[in-house]
Specification:
The chain is an alpha/beta fold. It contains twelve helices and twelve strands. Helix 6 packs parallel to helix 8. The longest helix is centred in the N-terminal third of the chain and has 21 residues. Nicotinamide-adenine-dinucleotide binds next to helix 1, helix 4, strand 5 and strand 7.
Length: 332
């Protein structure tokens, strides 16, 4: 297959491109990425010279460019998004633009160019907070913040293009990913890198919000399976099956980095903070997927990766990140 991967210079997209080129020797990948603050060519430095890989810098909202990059493509996998909830609370515009209008632009281009498959990457956040049980794919969408509302908009638009125009769309909704190459604003890499530097770990609210952690390579395997075997017009949840309160996750990171609990700093909660996410992954399980990386070992591998790749994350934590961190955490 020739794939157009959009947003492939980010965290999950870069892991996915590496996964595809490793698992499918005959596949080729074009990576269309705008290179926002979260996009980083260094995430794919090791495959830059692979003849099966090509990079195009550009925006998924640019219809002409998208049509051009679709030439000869068998399937599109859309990772491109503004993805950080906290940023969506203060700068929502870019979220609406990329996560809704960008998806619309891709849908129109895929329709016009008659591409056989568009796999759209979404999130368990579209279901909103789940007090009991787990969300199934047909459950109503109750997003709580501008990020998840924008993602829900993208999902609904994609499904509408399947129903009205027969555009062959498939959607995955995964839980919280962690692993190598995650921009250090998200809780796992932020807390690991802060701990390494003996900096405080800013834990929101009472620390008892629950997330279901999924190792990024398990997500890549599920996405690849859905890409090749999923049914048009269907949604597939992908959960790690490992639900943890943030405070427990924080203690685990401190233990793995060998740092004291005194580094924990309780800070004001995130507005509209969803208490718990949980997805039912039965459907993707029926395609033959199950997570293969147990949480404890995967978190240990992740901590080791950040320890061994300071040259990757130190430059990221200066510059744009420093300004964001100051604004977000200074008076909290
Ligand atoms: P990320 O923020 O690390 O990467 C996003 C990438 O998209 C970056 O490379 C960025 O440059 C690119 N991008 C942004 N706007 C673009 C545009 N207009 N045109 C082209 N490229 C653009 O995000 P991530 O964590 O890798 O998430 C990837 C996808 O998975 C997103 O759609 C996100 O909603 C979804 N998701 C993420 C998680 C998670 O835990 N990280 C969980 C579930 C779903
Ligand atoms: O559930 C899937 C979603 O997971 C994805 O769709 C998003 O793209 C991804 O960013 C992630 O969203 P979260 O808001 O769950 O991730 P984040 O890492 O920002 O926060 C995880 C939990 O940790 C959440 O309960 C808030 C808390 N937190 C986060 C940060 C950044 C803290 O306590 N302190 C922090 O500094």
């Amino acid at each position: 297959m020739k794939l157009l991967v959009t947003g492939g210079a980010g965290f999950i997209g870069s892991n996915f491109i590496r996964y595809v080129l490793r698992e499918h020797a005959d596949d080729r990948v074009v990576n269309l990425d705008k290179l926002t603050y979260a996009g980083n060519p260094a995430n794919l430095a090791d495959i830059q010279r692979d003849p099966r890989y090509a990079f195009v810098q550009g925006d998924i909202c640019d219809a002409a460019l998208v049509r051009e990059t679709l030439r000869g493509v068998d399937a599109v996998v859309n990772f491109a998004a503004e993805s950080h909830v906290d940023r969506s609370l203060v700068e929502p515009d870019g979220f609406l633009r990329t996560d809704v209008f960008g998806v619309f632009t891709l849908l129109e281009a895929v329709r016009e160019c008659r591409i056989p498959r568009l796999l759209h990457i979404s999130t368990d956040e579209v279901y909103g907070s789940v007090a009991h049980g787990s969300s199934a794919e047909q459950d109503p969408l109750r997003p709580s913040n501008p990020y998840s509302a924008s993602k829900a908009g993208g999902d609904l638009l994609a499904l509408s293009y399947w129903r009205t125009h027969g555009v062959p769309v498939v959607i995955t909704r995964s839980s919280n990913n962690f692993g190598p190459y995650q921009y250090p604003e998200k809780v796992v890499p932020l807390f690991i890198t802060n701990a390494i530097d003996d900096q405080p770990l800013p834990l929101y609210g009472d620390g008892r919000n629950v997330r279901d952690w999924l190792y990024v390579l398990d997500n890549c395997a599920a996405i690849d399976l859905v890409l090749r075997r999923g049914r048009d017009g269907e949604v597939y949840n992908i959960g790690g099956g490992h639900e943890v309160e943030n405070v427990v996750l924080t203690h685990e990171i401190l233990r793995l980095t060998g740092k004291p609990e005194t580094l924990i700093r309780r800070v004001t909660d995130r507005p509209g903070h969803d208490r718990r996410y949980s997805v039912d992954s039965t459907k993707v399980g029926q395609l033959g997927w199950a997570p293969r990386h147990p949480f404890a070992a995967a978190l240990e591998t992740t901590v080791r990766w950040y320890r061994e790749h300071e040259s990757w994350w130190r430059p990221l934590k200066s510059g744009e990140f420093r300004a964001w961190y100051e604004r977000q955490y200074a008076n909290r």
